[in-house]
Every structure is written in C-alpha cells, then in structure tokens.
Amino acid sequence: MTLVLTLGEPAGIGPEITAAAWRALHRQGPVFCWIGDAGLIPQVPVAHIAAPEEAAACFAEALPVLHRPLPAPVLPGRPSPATAPAVLASIEEAVALARAGRAAAVVTNPVQKAVLTAAGFPHPGHTEFLHTLAPAAPRPVMLLACPELRVVPVTVHEPLRQAIARLTPELIEEVAVIAHDGLRRDFGLPAPRLAVAGLNPHAGEGGSLGREEIEIVAPAVEALRARGIDARGPLPPDTMFTALARPRMDCAICLYHDQALIPLKTLDMAGGVNVTLGLSIIRTSPDHGTALDIAGRGLADASSLIAAIRLAAELAANRERQCS
Amino acid sequence: MTLVLTLGEPAGIGPEITAAAWRALHRQGPVFCWIGDAGLIPQVPVAHIAAPEEAAACFAEALPVLHRPLPAPVLPGRPSPATAPAVLASIEEAVALARAGRAAAVVTNPVQKAVLTAAGFPHPGHTEFLHTLAPAAPRPVMLLACPELRVVPVTVHEPLRQAIARLTPELIEEVAVIAHDGLRRDFGLPAPRLAVAGLNPHAGEGGSLGREEIEIVAPAVEALRARGIDARGPLPPDTMFTALARPRMDCAICLYHDQALIPLKTLDMAGGVNVTLGLSIIRTSPDHGTALDIAGRGLADASSLIAAIRLAAELAANRERQCS
User: Fold this and answer.
1) Which residue in chain B has the smallest CA separation from A236?
2) Cβ contact B265–A211 (<8 Å)
3) Average per-residue pLDDT for chain A
4) pLDDT per residue over B91-103, tens digit each?
5) Is A257 within 8 Å of B242 when comparing Cβ atoms?
6) I need a surface site. Which of A69, A182, B265, B276 has the fewest CB within 10 A?
7) pLDDT at B269 over 90
C-alpha cells in the first residue's frame, strides 16, 4: 500500500524535498504519493493520479500527485494565509485516506504554524491537529528516532521553567505508557526497554542536587514497573546517551524538549525522524521546519524526509504484522 | 617539564588508571609523576623520586612516584576518612609545585567528595578547593573538551530550578570572559568564537516559549560583543551541537550542567577532559568519578585520564609560548 505525503507549507522546502525524496526512492521504494499542487514540484516528472491506489503503477517513472490546485501563486520563502486552507485540507485528506485503509501511513511535510494560526487554525501545533483527526490515546506523544537513538520528550514546546513545574508522576507515566505501546505495536519490539531521565545534574545525587527525582520521577518509574513495563531510572541525564548506554535502551523518556533533542541532533542532524504515537494512524515527519530562508533555491537536504518515508513504511509493515 | 598527577581517592580507580596511563604513554610521553603511596600502584614498575625534576630521566622505565605513604590500609571500593588528609595534601603539594614552576601542570585524579566532607573539607568541590589554592579570576570555570567539542556550563552542580533562577546577564558574561581568556591563553586561539546557548526550546522562539533569552542571554551576548569578544547567541540548544554547527564555534557557553554535558558525553564518553580555567596554574582532570563499584578489579578505562594528561601538556606548551 502507498504512503501519502502532505503538502506542507507550499512556500517552504516541502515541494523540493518531496521531489528529491522521489528521486532517491523511485527505483526501490517505498512507494508514496503527494497531496498538493503539481505545478510546485521542481525538476522531476509528475504523474497526476486520481486515487492513491494508482501510485504504485507509476512510481518508478514519475512522482504520483493527487493534484489539488492552490488558489493563489506561491512565492518561495513568503508563506501566505491564502494557502493555509489547502495546507490543512491536505492533512485532513491524508489522514482520511490512512483511516480508510487506502494509505499505509501519513508523512507530513513541515508547516508554518504562525501562518496557520493567523488564518484561524485553533490548535497548538501540527501534532495536536492530527490527534483531533485520529486519536487513539488521551494525548499524542512525540518520538524522535535516528539510527542510534530513540527519544520521547514528556514536555515539549513550552518554557523550560513551566515544563519543570508541570512534571508529575502521572504525566510521566501516561507519556511513557503511550510510548511503550507504540514501540510494541509499530516498532516491533515485544518488550521495549525504557530509560527514564532525571531532571537535575547527576539525577539529583540522592536529593542533594534537587528532589524531583525522588518526588516525581522515581514514583513514575515504579508505577511503570508495576504495570510490567521494563523501565529504569531516574538516570543521570548526561551519561544516559553515551555510546555505551545507548544499546541498553530502546527509548529514552526525557523530561523536557532539549534533554531529548540535544542528544538526538548531536548524533544525527540530517536523519532524525519525528513519529507521533497515540494516533490511530501511522504518522512520521522530518525533524526540521519549513526552512523559508533557503526555500526554492535547491539547497534543501531531503535526508530527514527520506528517513521519515522509510521509517513510515517500516512501521506500517510492523503494524500490519501485529494485526494479521 | 613534568606534569604532576594527584593521588585522588585511593580506594577508587585512580591508582590503576594512573598505572594504565603510564603504560600507554611511557614511550612517547608526555612525562608525568604521581604524588601518592607507591604501594597502591598495580602491575607497573615504580621509581621513587625525590623531586619532580627527576621524573623525565626514569619515565621510560618506570612510573615516577613522589612517595607519600598512607596512614591506613586501602580497601578498593571502600573509601575511608583516614586517608582524606593525604588526598588533600597531595592536591596542595601538586599545586605548590606548579605554582613554583617545578611542574608544568596539575592533572587531578577523581576524589570522593562525601569522604572529604565528612573529614572536615569545607569546599563545595575539588575545583573550588583548587581555586582557593591558585586563583587567577573571580571564580573557577569548568571547561569540558573532547576532540569534537568544547563546552562551558555557566551553572554546574545545583538543582536545575535553582540554576535557572540564578542566571543573570552578569553571571553569563563573567563566566564567558573567563572562558574566553583561557581559550586565548591556554588553547592557543587568538580570537575564540563563543556560541551562547538559549535556555528554552528553540531559544524561546521570540518570547513565545520563554523570555530568558530576551531578558538574560541576549544582554550578556551584547556585553561580550561590546568587549570585542566574538560571541553569538542565544542559539537554539538542540541545533547548536550538530555536526554542521560544531566547526563554527570554539566553545559553547551553556546555561546549565546537562546542556553542556549531554552533547559532550553523547559524542565522546571515554575521552572527555575537564579543564579548570580561572586558575593561575593549568589543571585538567578526567571527566568521570572514582568508580568505586569497579575499583581494584582492572576494569577501569584510562582513556579520559590519558586525554587529560595529553591536553595538560598541550595547554602548558601553549601557555609557555604565550609567555615567552
């Protein structure tokens, strides 16, 4: 079954990295199609298709496009509220195709949140919108993966002080359980090993460098273990991502954005993939934004989108195997 | 001129990694001697010397030791307050030799802070003690280095909440200036390029994800630039340590312990070196603790101590060149 890619911000690098991903993958797959305006795709042959089921037949020769013409011209680097409805419609259509079993997974191109918000988009972000369209858990959970490491941040896009103040054993447990279930179902790991980070230097050193480990993180780890989940922690944040420690876990549960993102991007900037767990569909996306500063100039690196497409296909195959 | 290594915690891995470092370096150097109890050194030949000036002549054949017998037997993994005075005396003697120009630099073996504290040691740590013995700036500054990256944490061993609350433009500026001066004098960098981290996800995204960047970090960067220092920031913490970004800076100025230590240890656990800037002497140390759990069993990895010895020799040569 084909994967489906969304339009993303048309004035960003989405169209060109989609073309580059097709160029990289058109011989060996995985097969995908794009929902967007075919006129935006640079330099590669395009095949207009009427349904995702037609993608496989033409994928070796051209990028299959479910053509949805935009109502206004697109200037690279200059997002416009006029195209915001099409950006959202593309996401809705992709999710509907995946929910209907007509697409194996959704791979989203980056959006420009400020433009969507200005056009009346009521959600805090892309991920939350997807969760309203296809929920399967109380909240969506962001997992980032590169070949050496998987990380899940318990808190994400909020000021660090606020993120720390919001931490509770229940929040950590809830996020870790959703991560665990996703790792089992979609990553093909029968008993995922979770490594739960501490908050403070040296994980608080027994309370002398902070008490969040004792009061918040340790109870969450106990609760996870009581559920039969293989969870360890609180671990000292600086030593849990070393080359020796990485093979001992399947996923790090991190307490704040940069605790998760710093090690991942330090290891692998180009190939990181964002996976949303807690949805009824499979969704991956590249781990970067719209890159308005270089859009339309042929400079964009498609590595992360290519990795997102490959991982989406792998997760879809795992889920298929689980369910069959 | 010889380097001088301190005893460190005698019940930890110090004696065995010192022996391993001598084994690794005795042919090509750099030459060093150890202040400690010669009876603790396993498996390598030892030369009792009366003064550091004698180290070079015997270094190829044996580990030179300034023999200071301990008052009590040492059980690996079981630190005792009875040896605490000798641990401290060794540090004092090493610093005195360096201050007198009889040793090129001090390389400290790890100490067990709790044992020293129980024996009446009044300082918050090893580094602060060294600063009282050989101050050259208002405060000591910790720099960690591995081949790919140098980082300086502005706040170090304190709870994360407290570290955030303590950040001021003045503190960041003061630490960055000491780092800058040390990079110039000891690392041989005529115009060190400093990359200053933000605190919040995406460096606060213009204030929507936190205001510390606007209120605290940006003013510090401006003040540094007004001094003629090549400082950039506040930078998004997750993308400033990537493979593409690392070559664009000589040192990252980080706001808290793990923001500095996570990328460093993710890249290079074994070879990280701790350098103290703001001292009148050169001091390096391995970037790990006493490893009581494996002490005396021949399992310890001497890579970081070896890297610390090599870096100390390099810094001493640079400082010599600056001053001559």
Assistant:
1) B258
2) no
3) 95
4) 999 999 999 999 9
5) no
6) A69
7) no
Domains, chain B: 1-134+288-324 (3.40.718.10), 137-278 (3.40.718.10)
Pairing of β B283-286 and β A273-277? unpaired
Rounded Cα distance between A240 and A260, Å, is 11
Take residue B232 and report the two structure tokens written for it: 């950039």
Using CA coordinates, name the residue in chain A closest to B262. A238
Report ipTM (2 d.p.).
0.91
Average the pLDDT over A232-260 and give the result: 96
Query: Mind telling me how many Å the CA of B202 is from chain A's nearest CA?
Result: 9
Distance CA A39, CA A300 (A): 19
Pairwise CB contact (< 8 Å): A159 & B262:
no
Q: What is the dihedral of CA A259, A263, A266, A268, to 10 degrees?
A: -120
Label residues A253-273 b or e (16+ Cβ within 10 Å = b). Answer: bbbbbbbbbbbbbbbbbbbbb
Å between A125 CA and nearest CA of chain B: 13
B118 and A CB contact within 8 Å? no
Encoded tokens for A125 = 């972000």
Of A164, A202, A258, the CB nearest to B238: A258
pLDDT in tens, A71-88: 989 999 999 999 999 999
